[in-house]
Amino acid sequence: MEQGDVKILKKKPIYPVSAELRKYLRFYQRDAKLPVGYHDLLNFYESFPVMDKNGRDTLWESPLYPPHEIDRLHSGLKKAYAMLKASGNLRIVEHKYIDRIDYCKFGNSNPFRIKIVNRLNDIYDYFYVKRADASRIYGLELEEIFSPNQVNYLVDGDSLIEEHIAGIPGDEFAKTRLREPDYNPIRIAKEFVKFNERCMITLLGDMRSYNFVMQITPDFDDFQFRLRAIDFDQQFYEGNIKVYMPQFFKENRPYVELAMEYLTDKTVLQYQQEEQSSIMYQARSERYRLKELRDVSIKDNISTIDNIHQLREGLFRHYSDNQYHRCESMTDIIELNIKNVIRQVNA
């Protein structure tokens, strides 16, 4: 695999959710009337930094709310969690309480992270309240359709609540566990190659190591690994082709070096083809949902003309495929990517 370094120089704008996208979300039961919205959580008067166990700044802040607002916010957040997890069944939150609310100024969506705890056994969970961004919603939907993972979220107006995706942050895994003696490095490298391929085909950008997690599952004779994206803000916006290739981010260099050490060109190609086959089967099984999403997104203004032209030129050079010059939108580009995958698998 090639190594390199790519930077995103400008912050992506937040794109509003169009009427057509809202109609799509209603049909697939992704919309809801939330008791607490993103702007309610912005009404804090002060905050202090959240430090990790080693005393380092986590880039999260803990906001302080007026005392008369806390009960309302906590009650609303518990109801929102019940809507996210159990279609609004409040019995699941009877013995739960909101332990903390954290706020992150870093990144595009400026999320709130909510920690909810079961007072009977101290088991806790997290969920997130974010600004609803069309780019992110399209990314979540494409993740649901094409990846082996399920995503859980709800949208109400300009607010989005999203399930926590459990796993070891990719940057932490690279520092502390990548070379663990009990872990098969070939399995880890294989997963990174497949993840890289899926991001490229579906145009999921900015997959630096802190934007994905590693999930580890013990098997009867080994450990299985899965990389899962946790940030979908850079879904088909940027024009630089390398933004959609995790191998070119310096933060992912440990994974690239592992792949170069343990994989050959032949095995890399094999794993890319495996991922292409998986995407082809998903495209066929979810063809009606995919068509509906395409019909919505192709009308949406979710990038710039300059970015679209830059990306289609980069893909033309990468694949030597003149058909990319005919693409007039990011949706056209993804559609061509998927058609090319189907052709290659069936060749």
TrEMBL record:
Protein origin, superkingdom: Bacteria
Instruction: Please report the name of this protein according to its UniProt entry.
Output: Uncharacterized protein
Q: Which organism is it from?
A: Dyadobacter psychrophilus
